[in-house]
Amino acid sequence: MSARVVALVLVSTVFASATPAIPRSEISPHGFPGQALISFYRGLDWSSKREHYAIRVHDERVGELARGSFLYHLTAPGRRIVFVEADISVSRSFELRSGEIVYIRIDRRGGPPLSRPKLLPVEPEKGVKEIGELSYSGPGPFHDARQYCLQNDPS
Question: Are 104 and 87 in contact (CB under 8 A)?
C-alpha cells in the first residue's frame, strides 16, 4: 500500500461521521418520518476552561461542540437523555416527538468558572435565529446541517 493510500485512509477515519447523516429521502415537508432532530448549540462561553464539550444522546456519541458553534443529531422519538461533558458534566432528559426539530442551547451564563452548564430547550424561532449566527462544528457537509437545523416549522 502506498503512503498516499494510508494517509487517505487515516484522514477519512478522522473525519468519519459520528452523527448520522440525514438521507434526503427521509426529509419531507412533514418532517422526519419516525425520527426527531436535535440541534445543539453553544455561545462563545469564554469563561469555560473547555474548548469543546462532548455531546452524547444515551450511549451514542454525537460529537464535540466548540464555542460559538452548533451540531445536530437524528434520533428515534421518545425520551432521550442528553449528556454533556463540560467543566462539570451534566445530563437532562427530553421527550421527542416524531418529525420534531428540538433546539437545545448549552449555556453557562454567570457563576464561577467551574459552574455547571445548563441544557436549555429553546423555542424554534429563537433557535433558528441563534444558530444562524454560529458555525457548524459537527462532521459531514456544513450546508446539509444548516439546512435541517434552520427549519423552524417541519410540518
Answer: no
Residue 106 has pLDDT above 60, yes or no: yes
**Separation between Cα atoms, residue 12 and residue 7, nearest integer Å:** 9
Q: How many CB atoms lie within 10 A of CB 58?
A: 11
Closest CA to 148 of 59, 17, 18, 26: 26
CA angle 51, 128, 150 (to 5 degrees): 100
- 136-154 tens-digit pLDDT: 887 665 545 556 677 655 4
- The 10 Å Cβ neighbour count of residue 26 is 15
Mean pLDDT confidence for 49-57 = 90
- Structural domains in the chain? 19-149 (2.60.40.10)
